[in-house]
Design goal:
Length: 153
């Protein structure tokens, strides 16, 4: 689960009207708000997420969440560190939710799949038996030295 809410913080009016930076505690963390004189109330985004490790519903500030979109396949995800159990949680989501998170102030990263995934591969598929043979060969120093010698020459 992930949702974004605007929380009215009327206590910030006097500080923000003076142009001071205002902090609000959120689950043991603080959030910096923009300064404003034009509005009566300052709204801050509160992002509610559910930790997949401890199953707690956690309210987070936008700075505590990061979202990302893969440029190759459009896969959208967001991640956060759970303030209850300290586990880093990565969840799949929709590009629309990433847009919503970005509008709430969450950083959005664009990333690419590793180039190795697109390399043309040749030769037979590596099997489990191949791996076991290789493991046995690594235990014999003479055989390893001979194999390296063949690679060099
Ligand atoms: Zn947790």
């Amino acid at each position: 689960m992930c949702s974004v809410e605007a929380v009215e913080c009327s206590k910030s009016l006097s500080r923000s009207a003076r142009g001071e930076r205002t902090k609000f505690g959120h689950a043991g963390h603080s959030t910096h708000l923009c300064h404003t004189r034009a509005v009566d109330f300052v709204y801050m985004a509160k992002i509610l997420v559910t930790c997949s490790s401890c199953n707690e519903d956690i309210p987070l500030a936008p700075e505590q969440v990061c979202s990302r979109i893969c440029t190759n396949n459009g896969q959208a995800e967001y991640r956060f560190t759970c303030t209850s159990c300290d586990v880093i949680v990565l969840k799949s989501t929709t590009s629309r939710m990433v847009e919503t998170l970005e509008a709430a102030g969450v950083e959005v990263e664009m990333w690419n799949l590793p180039a190795e995934l697109f390399e043309h591969r040749q030769g037979p598929t590596l099997t489990h038996e191949d791996l076991l043979d290789f493991h046995i060969q690594l235990s014999d120093d003479t055989e390893v030295a001979e194999a390296i010698e063949q690679l060099v020459n």
